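seq:
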Amino acid sequence: MNALYILFAVALAVVSIFTGEVVTYIALGFILMALHNILQVLKEISAKLDRRN
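struct:
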């Protein structure tokens, strides 16, 4: 799955360079990393709740 993320990031980087939206690309990267971290925390909480019940 990481290869898919890398491919997607490279494709977005190429598009952002051609359109001149490099700052937007960087901001989108930060947002996606934050969302990924939130997802991981929610998965951990769900796993703990599943083990508890």
